[in-house]
Here is the input.
Amino acid sequence: MSEKKVIPAGATWKEIPVAGIIPTAGTAQEFKTGDWRTRKPIHDEKKCINCLRCWIYCPDASIMVKDGKVIGIDYDHCKGCGICANVCPDKVKALTMIAQSEEE
Ligand code: SF4
Ligand code: SF4
Here is the structure.
């Protein structure tokens, strides 16, 4: 197994691998990649029926679940794609996308 190389936040272009490749797997945990998000999902736990469709479909594993229930959104990694709100059942609509700049 190759040694895991972590590229530090604020790395210069000389420290980034050629062509911007990701040299090792599982590095997403090391970086707060949600900081370029323009929209964010807001979860309403009163409406949520915990079907976990959002958890299944989120491409960034940013739906936080404990004991089979959605407990929040990992905004450090959520990209604001809106997939979770899109797959939340129409009759429930427990996830709403808002502009990142809006107050919750
Ligand atoms: S907006 Fe996208 S990245 Fe963020 S929690 Fe929803 S599905 Fe995941
Ligand atoms: S898809 Fe909607 S109702 Fe289902 S767990 Fe997610 S937020 Fe709750």
